[in-house]
Amino acid sequence: SIWRGPNINCTDSSGYTALHHAALNGHKDIVLKLLQYEASTNVADNKGYFPIHLAAWRGDVDIVKILIHHGPSHSRVNEQNNENETALHCAAQYGHSEVVAVLLEELTDPTIRNNKLETPLDLAALYGRLRVVKMIIKAYPNLMNCNTRKHTPLHLAARNGHKAVVQVLLEAGMDVSCQTEKGSALHEAALFGKVEVVRILLETGIDTNIKDSLGRTVLDILKEHPSQQSLQIAALLQEYMETGNASVSEERPLECAEHQSCILSPEVPPSPKAKSEAVTGELSKLLDEIKLCQEKEYSFEDLSHTISDHYLDNFSKVSEEELMTSGSQTKLNVVSKMGYKDNIFSYICFTYGTFKKEIVQE
Fold it and tell me: Which residues, if any, are the signal sequence (predicted)?
């Protein structure tokens, strides 16, 4: 009624209440005032997000604590959004270790899986959140068991080249030869060109003869995706299989294949013209591979996922601490590391779309 004033839990077009906005933007005092006037912590927006999801996503540990312990309707820490993610998923994905600690203390269930069957540990491993990975496996070591054929934390960390996470998982007792439909973690690391992770897995004694759901070993997959990194990883695997040693140097010169030109000695810096020709040649090869993928009826999603991971190698080397820094200079540094590769990726997607259009017309 007009005499009672506006409803404290009224929502906007996105389903946000005032408490959602205050939690998302870190306004602690306003959160407390809204709770004083009986704002509900258990109202979801249009995508199923509760205020505690937004506070966890932001990494605001104070507001998370307030939402859990204050007000007439305490936040239920295991509430899930439309993607079946809890607040712990949000905090783990972005590496907010203090929020993760609070949620674990409040008995948030870390075994809940989202729509992609990912646990909070899976997301932390996928994005290289080392501290969060250590916290979760210490509290719930059973999460490292191979209980899904889709993926494991080890597979996800290996795919994105997170060496420290891979080592922590293995040291905590995770089975290095655990298999999914995509094979072993070695399949993932090799397919995405993560040489150092391949070396770690080999040194741990992973079985190189494991096959994926299509019956392919790691070497079989490498033959299907010829590249400089594939040749390097194949040499590493051959050395390991012959000698049991995974010590092939990353700088070890590879024999020139018949269809490739030998690499110039590093002592002689190439001229700008040579650099330009080399880039043009590599781009041509990549476009040929894209057209071949189209002919094999690979989906655009699969191709774009593979290429984006390949061309974001430099970005994956940015440390967690650097990404967590909010300074503008850090943001500029990160952007500068990605800009060149994003432009190439955009051109590749455009060209792939052109091939696709031509084939449809034919």
Answer: none
pLDDT tens figures, 95-126: 999 999 999 999 899 999 999 999 999 999 99
* Per-residue buried b or exposed e for 303-342, using 16+ beta carbons within 10 Å of the residue's own CB: beeebebbbbeeeeebebeebeeeeeeeeeebeebbeebe
Closest CA to 313 of 336, 338, 334, 290: 338
Residue 268 lies in a domain: no
**CATH code of the domain in which 30 resides:** 1.25.40.20
Q: What is the pLDDT of residue 264?
A: 31
Please give the Cα distance from 175 to 178 (Å, whole number): 5
| 180: helix, strand or coil | strand
Asked if residue 68 and residue 173 are part of one domain, the reply reads no
- Residue 144 is classified by DSSP as G
Could you say which DSSP state residue 40 is in? -
| Residue 299 CA: distances (Å) to CA of 84, 128, 287 | 26, 27, 16
Q: What is the distance between the alpha carbons of residues 309 and 349, in angstroms, rounded to a whole number?
A: 14
Contact at 8 Å (CB) between 232 and 254? yes
Domain limits for position 358: 276-362
**How many angstroms separate the CA atoms of 89 and 117, rounded?**
12
